[in-house]
Each structure stands twice: as C-alpha cells, then as structure tokens.
Amino acid sequence: MNPLIANSKLADLHEKVSAGIRIDECDALRLFRSDDLNAIGLIANEVNRRKNGNRASFIVNRYINYSNYCILSCQFCSFARKKRDDDGFQLSRDQILTKAREALNLGITELHIVGGLHPSLPFDYYLDMVQSLKSLDPKLELKCFTAIEILHLSWLAKQSVRSTLSALKEAGLSSLTGGGAEIFRKAVRQQIARGKESAEEYLEVHRIWHGLGGRSTCTMLYGHVETPEDRVDHLRKLRILQDETGGFTGFVPLAYQPESNGIPVSCPPTGADSLKTIAVSRIYLDNIDHITAYWVGLGLGLAQVALNYGADDLHGTIIEEHIFHMAGAKSPQEQTREAMIKAIREAGRTPVQRNTFYEPLWQSGDDPSPAQRAAPTAG
Ligand code: SF4
To answer: Which of 150, 199, 216, 313 is the most interior residue, by most CB within 10 Å?
Structure first.
C-alpha cells in the first residue's frame, strides 16, 4: 500500500475500495470532510485506473445555444434573459445550420445544444432543428437538451415525456445532456433554482430516456450554498438510478461560477475542493464509468491535474461557450485538439479522442483521424 495512504486516517476506506466493496454515504461524507486530499486522490486514481487504465479522453465538439430567453429565473443563472433585455438572443434555423456546417469542416463529431425555456418557439422548431442538423451528416452526434427543456418541450408538444423523447430520437437526437441537476435536495433547489423541475422530475426524464435505449450524462453543480451532506445525497440519487438503468455514460461535476447572479457566494470553489469533489465522485459512483474534469469551469490547468484525482475525461473543444462565461468563467472559449492532447500527455495519460458515448475514435499512436487533420491548430 502506498505509505501516504497506509499512514492516513483513510486507510480503512482504501482497503474497502481495494477489495471492491462499495462505499456507503457515511464513507462518502467522511471523504468530503477529510482534508487529506493526497490520500483521497490516490484512492480515486486507483479506482479510475482499474476502470479506464491509463487512457484519458476528450471529444471534438461544438456548443450551440439556440436561445437564452427563458420563462424561468433560477437564482444562480447568469445566462437567461427576458424579451425586454437587449442582450437576449435567438438563433434561426439557418444560423444554427451555418454554425454546424463550419464546425463539421473543423472535424467535430458532436454538437452539444441547450437553451433556455423559450416563451414562444413551437415544438416544431426543436424537431426541425434536430432533423435538419442530422441531415447535414448522419454520423454527426446530437447531444441536446436538459431534463427541464424536455419537460418544456413535452408541454409544448402536448405529449407525454415518453412520446416527446421518442419523436426527438426519431428525428436524430443521440443523447440527452446532464445539465440542470444542480443539487437535488429541495431546500437547496429552493435557494438556487426556484421554479425548476424537482429532483424526481429530472431523474424521471433520464429514466424514461434510458428506457427508450437512450444514453445521457449527469451533473452536479457544487460550491454555492450546499453542504457536504447535500452533495452526498445528490450522488446517492444518481447512483440509485444508474443501478436501475445503467444509462449514464459519464458524470460531470460543475464548479459554480459566482458572477452576475442572485446567489451571494464570495468566491468560487477552490482548486482543492474541486479536486476532492471529482475524487469522491469517482470513488462513490462505482457504477458510472467516466468522470469529466470540465475545463470550462476549472481552467485547463486544474482539469489536467484532476486526471490524477479520478477524472478520465476533459470534455471537448467546445468552440463557443456562453453559460459559464456569462457567469464569469475566465477560461477561453475553445480548446484546440492539440491543447487537449498535450494536457493529457503531460498528465502522464494516453490521449483518446472519443465519441458522444465515450467510445474511442482515435488513440495516441494511431494514424491521424479526419478530425485531427481538420481541427483548428494552436494559435
Ligand atoms: S438555469 Fe436554465 S431554466 Fe433556469 S433560468 Fe437559467 S436557462 Fe432558465
């Protein structure tokens, strides 16, 4: 056993995890309360290596936000606008297709599309958007919509959630995004996202999607008003659903960005807190294969370090990000493919370009992929 763990107060938890015994909520809480970041990181790293070997992945993708108009006003949100605001936007079908064509020329394999709950766009707008994008390239993966958007679309379509998801799947939807989970506990949701769907509704949308054969990611927004107990409760609910459906491909912890919103938090989550959150998630969520270090919120430097604290994925090239940047994120708008590969190599991992479902498309040592040849180069 590594002496750092053997001499730590977490040695018993390490033995449990090494023996393949699932940790419980008390154990997870103990990890969150511990300040022994090195020991927690070493345990998480061991779990990650057991699951994913030395590989660390990224995706060549593009974000598109079709609109930031939203009928809700979640207190933590810096992205949403009302029609009276002069910095609201709404993209036409042609504008979306233009962005998609440009990105396809850069070698993307996935479009990641979310927006606010628009006050007047009809269901056909969304269906047409998915259909038109899929017709640009049948191999293009469309990862679209959060659970609350699906509830909104179901209301617009006057159909059940199941029928709405089926229609979107038939139109070309590949995966749901994991956004909107925030923190599941009702008391926290009331403080940060009053009016948003409940935990049960979020989980039910994903349950139905998984039942249709769909896959999705899941998230947790941390570092605002929640307690360690709230984080553990959140992870517990995700683990229970994953035991039931197996439909989550990856978990993405999202570091709260404190600017331009109604939640008074004096500073964002620290680097140590982010590393610990990623590591505890890796150890506790034993039934979810992949944990993403989301560079937009962390910065690429800290995301790179997280690859030795349980994370095995850096997310994507993204190209244009609004939600975190309107909340004050200082990271750049995009990463080149080369920057992702360099970050992963420097962390001592083998870079793997993945698809939406975390399946490898290219691995370091392979011939250049089409995306590698076409993706933008550094500078
Ligand atoms: S978090 Fe989503 S649902 Fe809430 S106000 Fe912002 S865009 Fe609207």
So the answer is: 313
Ligand 1 nearest atom to the CA of residue 116, by list position? 7
CB 77 near ligand 1, within 6 Å: yes
Beta-strand (E) ranges in the chain? 55-59, 61-65, 110-114, 141-144, 175-176, 215-222, 248-255, 290-291, 313-316, 350-354, 360-363
- Atom 7 of ligand 1, residue of closest alpha carbon: 116
Question: What is the C-alpha separation between 312 and 314, in angstroms, rounded?
Answer: 7
Would you say residue 83 lies in a domain?
Answer: yes
Whether 221 is in the pocket of ligand 1, judged by its Cβ within 6 Å, is: no
Number of domains the chain is built from: 1
Give the model's pLDDT for residue 321.
86
Residues whose CB is less than 8 angstroms from the CB of residue 46 and which lie 6 or more positions away in sequence, other chains included: 14, 17, 18
Looking at residue 369, what is its pLDDT? 56
CB atoms within 10 A of CB 20: 9
Distance of CA 314 to the CA centre of its chain: 10
**Distance between Cα 314 and ligand 1 center (Å):** 24
Query: Containing domain of residue 121, as a range?
Result: 3-374
Strands 350-354 and 360-363: antiparallel
Ligand 1 centroid from CA 219, angstroms: 15
Q: How far apart are CA 93 and CA 125, in angstroms?
A: 8
**Which ligand 1 atom is at minimum distance from the Cα of 79?**
6
Neighbours of 110 (CB within 10 A): 23
Q: What is the pLDDT of residue 372?
A: 52
User: How far from chain centre, in Å, is Cα 367?
Assistant: 29
Give the type of residue at 228. Answer: P
- Which of 147, 255, 279 has the alpha carbon at shortest distance from 210? 147
Radius of gyration, alpha carbons of the chain: 20
Residues of the chain with pLDDT under 50: 375-379
CATH number at residue 119: 3.20.20.70
Q: Is residue 379 part of a domain?
A: no
CA of 224 to the centre of ligand 1 (A): 16
Ligand 1 centroid from CA 80, angstroms: 6
